[in-house]
Design brief:
Strand order of the largest sheet of chain A: 4-3-5
Structural class of chain A: alpha+beta
Number of domains of chain A: 2
Oligomer: homodimer
CATH superfamily of the largest domain in chain A: Winged helix-like DNA-binding domain superfamily/Winged helix DNA-binding domain
CATH architecture of the largest domain in chain A: Orthogonal Bundle
Largest sheet of chain A: 3 strands, mixed
Mean pLDDT of chain A: 85
Helix content of chain A: 25-40%
Number of helices of chain A: 6
Amino acid sequence: MEENVMTQAMIVRLQQAGYRKTAARNAVMAVLRQAPLHLTHQEILSQARALNATLSLASVYRTLELFTSLGLCRPLYLGEGGPRFACVEDGHHHHMVCRACYCTYHFPECTAGELEVELSSRFGFRIESHLVEFYGLCRECQAEGEAGKDGLG
Amino acid sequence: MEENVMTQAMIVRLQQAGYRKTAARNAVMAVLRQAPLHLTHQEILSQARALNATLSLASVYRTLELFTSLGLCRPLYLGEGGPRFACVEDGHHHHMVCRACYCTYHFPECTAGELEVELSSRFGFRIESHLVEFYGLCRECQAEGEAGKDGLG
DNA sequence: GTAGGTGCAAATGGTTTGCAATTCG
DNA sequence: CGAATTGCAAACCATTTGCACCTAC
């Protein structure tokens, strides 16, 4: 636990829920927070071992489940290979996923803010984060489709 | 294949991609289209057997993978028990998921339309559907948190 | 008629779990 | 010190796959 990778808010959320701040959780959070893309359990393990050489895959599973239940991250399907995890501490994620090659583009625009307020009050839901995902075909896969291969275009 | 559960657009998409219209695919699509909630593989199998008594779980897996690759449905994490599938032929899905009890609320509002047009032209992406997901605590779980149990409130 | 699709059951491997040792508070 | 957490390895079970039979086209 050499570095201060968890924000104060994260530590408070962990500890108020009765959980401890450990080296394993620190390493997983460090990886999630710096990852430019969403990662699988195995990818998180590989990267986190740079910070915690004895980290086990079982702990990665346990930690990601805990973080998800606390609202610190979110599992998503973005193609093949099972769930991938995104850190949602900053509150929102927006991306486009190609259904053919699974490439993913991120964009900063967000139109969900006003809706969030409206829904919060209507349903009494305390909204902590959101995800906006567009789904379709990227430029390259459209071109391949038009070339005749699978006729999807 | 007694009923006409696939839209003409779905049949065209299947066949232009070189796939056949079969009883198994028909049954799975029928279940997806009429389901008020998102279902797991096993739930889809159970319901689809009413339409196709000999349907196998393996075919459900194969069919859902195919439909996903064609953009006819979408896997999501909405709590425990692995992926759940939503039919996205109608183009969009909006819901709120509670991170504690996993209850799910749907709502009709959509603010993604204008953004869709903008992103399409900027990235050359052909957007076919989208998902807007809010994530947080439902009214009941907020109350439980405030009652002191896990201090999340 | 034939390539594509299905059901079955076995194989696979991702995920979970029991437990002794370790660590946080 | 006591309870929570971890790593390991075995257990579990969801998912995939091989194959012979069937069916859409």
